[in-house]
Amino acid sequence: MCLAVPMKITAIDGYQCTCEARGIEREVSLFMLQHEDVKAGDHVLVHVGYAIQKVSDEEATETWALFDEMLGEEHV
Asked: CATH for 5-71, among 3.30.930.10, 3.40.30.10, 1.10.10.10, 2.30.30.140?
């Protein structure tokens, strides 16, 4: 089973971007989404350093809520 984490793109440089989620920043490859229209402010699912799917803000929020529920934590 794989786990992808929703992250928000904060900057793009070619096929590399900087993404942020809950105060954590990561450098992420956009190579797998090179035919998608992605821009700073968009949310993507990140798996092992690759953005694998563009998702809506709502989907990203719902996913984090589910992660919090599974971990028994509340996050504001």
From this structure: 2.30.30.140
